[in-house]
Amino acid sequence: MNAAAPLYLDYAATTPVDPAVAAAMSGCLTASGDFGNPSSAHALGSVAAARIAHARAQVAALLGAAADEIVFTSGATESDNLAILGVARANADRGRHVLTARTEHKAVLDPCKRLEKEGFSVTYLTPGRSGLIAPAAFAAALRADTVLASIMYANNEIGVLQDLAAIGALCRERGVALHSDCAQAAGKVPFDVHGLPVDLVSITAHKIYGPKGVGALYVRRGARGLLQPLMYGGGQERSLRPGTLPTHQIVGFGLACEMAARELPAEGMRLTALRERLWAGLEALGGTHLNGAGAPRLPGILSVSFEGVEGESLVTGLTGLAVSTGAACNSVSPEPSYVLRALGRDAQLAQSSLRFSLGRFSVDADIDFALNAVQAEVRRLRALSPACGPAGEGFGPAHGTGSGGATVVSGEAGGPGQESWVRFHLLVAGDSVKDARFQAFGCPHTMDAAAWLCGELRGRRRAALIPGTPATWAAARGVPIEKLGRLLVVEDALRACLSHWA
Questions:
Q1: Which residues are catalytic?
Q2: pTM for this prediction
Q3: Do 235 and 184 touch, CB atoms closer than 8 A?
């Protein structure tokens, strides 16, 4: 690993390609390898087709499926879309109701929203506080016109495992097709599609040390007639997903599945032990909440909410770690995790959550390193927060007398439960600022602006206390326009200082 690279604890987002997988893929790329088009009738095509047939059997074995039940796609997102849109549209004459959960991946929720635009009705179930969908609630939501249910096996943010056996049994009783996004579950927990009442299952290679850009949809033999394709072309994959098959990606996918199946029992126990050790260290901080507590969970995912810290500032401060505040597909969104909000977390706790995901190359020393880093940063941010107390650092009590007869003037804006809370403490003598300190709960831009302004405030007189405007501060500090509103809170805190400066 590059010595400058952060410690990788984001395996739920993607995994590095295993060296053995990369080597197998390289044998299908150049003129000296098995590069032929598997649809070609000549010898090179036949060799490539044989490689794909072997890989198909490897993928099927991981799921407990038959090889002819595996349809190769570009990944779990395409598999989800094919399953949801394909089943709903093909069975619209029987019913136009779809059942899913609020905690599903966007690759399930967005196709469902698309179906709503096409005139379908979609019910979004809310899980219990542990993240589990109660079978009784699922049964109550089924309708006479329900044609499809989509419930993921393992949640990508909190790792909670749903009771697919109970949910699938309810679907079979009603003749409802059941799809499950198993991108996180496949290769991580024992899984047998023939032992479960599921009809369609989505998986992807890049979650199990295979390449990005390839995945599969398991389609139960008896369910093929329920599904129509989304694309049309050369008839590959039994016309459910046409297009020239990427031999190198599929070969890598197959080997990744075989390796995951072989290592699954021991790896599951190892990752569970690492996960529990990590949680014990984080729990000792106090003010920490385990998301998904009380429910069965994946071995390698740990989602924790931290009281008294702002999530983006926490991640920004953990420069030595590669962790996530939620699902990778949502990491650019400033909104709190919709999964955690569905579990009943308030906006601030949901926003101050980290997802640690462990994997094949995680070791004991990584847990120690992560614990030291997170504990130090959480303590630092909590100490900076106005919630820790009203006193200015080293100045003495607010509005009181500091050293040398100088006076401490304090002002704040925002407050508990809000996305920004800023408090300034100014050491003033006569008509000028001798020193300035701040306390803040907020995003990294809020914290940076407050710290920078403390330097700008020193030596300023009361009549010209506020140096510029939030717009000029944003330009000086590179604050994105969508964060400008948070600098208004900083400005309000300075104006509060003015009002207290007699």
A1: 329
A2: 0.90
A3: no
